[in-house]
Specification:
The protein is an alpha/beta fold. 29% of the residues lie in helices and 30% in strands. It has 2 domains: 2-95 and 172-205, ATPase, nucleotide binding domain (Nucleotidyltransferase, domain 5, 2-Layer Sandwich), CATH 3.30.420; 96-167, Nucleotidyltransferase, domain 5. It contains 6 helices and 10 strands; from the N terminus they run βββαβαβαβββαββαα.
Length: 207
């Protein structure tokens, strides 16, 4: 099976094509504010590198959040266009799930993304990938308080003052795809961003 993976939930583009448990090609590159302009051309290069056309893809796995509001929309839009126009099965996963699966720590894994003002997008997973704390928007101190042990590894590319072991997030696209390749597909129109919090504009309306 040929699977296209797309993650634009941060300032980075993480994307790759996997065929039968083999990573054909990938891109892991930071684009910052130019991500919206560079994401599609970079994904198109993957097809050239693998000698495939978009119609050859048999499934798409896209990260639906949390993270950058704009970034998430970029990846989901590209994935939905491919899926809908070429009738390719699609499924979505959390950025926090991807961070957990990529990590090899033998302790509880706590992937976190800075959500500012002391808050994070975070979750916690056991060594065998069972959910301990569901993905949520939460104060970092409250998230860590939910754990029944101090034996955990924080996975993040953001800066936090944490005493426990911290490991940078380095996506293992082959591992992510292999783990989620059999996840149930869904209607492309139902694949939408999962921000886990209101946008700033929505929050201001409530004030």
């Amino acid at each position: 099976m040929r699977i296209l993976y797309i993650d634009t939930s941060s300032s980075y583009l993480y994307a790759g094509i996997v065929e039968n448990e083999r990573l054909l090609c990938e891109v892991k590159k930071e684009f910052g504010h130019s991500l919206s302009e560079e994401a599609l051309p970079e994904i198109s290069k993957l097809f050239t590198q693998s000698n495939l056309a978009p119609k050859d893809i048999e499934k798409i796995i896209v990260v639906d959040g949390p993270g950058s509001f704009t970034g998430i929309r970029i990846g989901i839009t590209i994935a939905k266009v491919y899926a809908w126009s070429l009738n390719i099965p699609i499924t979505s996963i959390s950025a926090l799930e991807a961070m957990n699966i990529s990590n090899t720590s033998q302790t509880i894994r706590v992937p976190i993304i800075d959500a500012r003002r002391g808050y994070v997008f975070g979750a916690a997973y056991s060594v065998d990938n069972q959910v301990i704390v569901e993905p949520c928007h939460i104060k970092l101190t409250d998230l860590l308080a939910k754990l029944s042990t101090n034996e955990y590894t924080v996975i993040t590319n953001d800066e936090f003052e944490i005493e426990n072991n911290i490991e940078a997030y380095e996506p293992n696209i082959l591992k992510i795809v292999s783990y989620y390749k059999n996840k149930k597909s869904m209607n492309p129109h139902l694949v939408n961003p999962k921000y886990l919090k209101l946008t700033e504009a929505e929050e201001n309306k409530l004030l």
